[in-house]
Amino acid sequence: QVQLVESGGGLVQAGGSLSLSCAASGLTFSKYVMGWFRQAPGKDREFVAAISRSAGTTYYADSVKGRFTISRDNAKNTVYLQMNSLKSDETAVYYCAASSLGPITTDVLLSTAYNYWGQGTQVTVSS
C-alpha cells in the first residue's frame, strides 16, 4: 500500500520560512517524479513544484520561483519543500504527490499526472 505522509506544516508570519517533508512508502521511490501542490480555501489545487527521479530537473510555479526549493533524498524515500519569504496568500493545505510519468516533462504541472497523493499538511501564513 502506497503512503505519502507530509509533515512540517504550521503557523508562520509573513516573510518567514517553513520546511515541509513528505515520506513515501510502498513504492520504489526513485522511480517516481515527485511534486508539491497546494489548495487554499475556495480555490482549485495548484501546482507548486516538481522534481525528477534523479533530482536533476526541477519545475516551479512562477509565483514561488526564487523563494521555494524542492529536493529529494532517494535513500530516505523523502521529498522536501523549503519555503522562504512566505506570503499570507500562500496559506493553504500543501500536498505531495508521486507520478510514475518517467522522464520528467511539463506534464508534471498537472495534477492528473500523479498517481498517489498525501493527506496534506496545513500551512498558515499570518500577515
Can you tell me the residue ranges where pLDDT is under 50 for at least 5 consecutive residues? none
Structural class: mainly beta
Q: Determine the N-to-C terminus distance.
A: 40 Å
Q: What is the oligomeric state here? A: single chain
Number of strands: 11
Report strand %. over 45%
The overall average pLDDT, rounded, is 97
Order of helices and strands: EEEEEEEEEEE
User: What's the helix count?
Assistant: 0
Relative helix content: under 10%
Computed CA radius of gyration, to the nearest angstrom:
13 Å
Morphology: globular
Instruction: Specify the biggest β-sheet.
Output: 7 strands, mixed
Q: In a nutshell, what does this entry contain?
A:
The chain is mainly beta and about 130 residues long.
Describe the structure.
- There is one protein chain.
- This protein has 127 residues and is mostly beta strands.
- Helices cover 0% and strands 48% of the residues.
- The chain has no helices and eleven strands.
- The strands form two sheets. Strands 2, 4, 5, 6, 9, 10 and 11 form a seven-stranded mixed β-sheet that branches.
- The protein is globular, with a radius of gyration of 13 Å.
- The N and C termini lie far apart (40 Å).
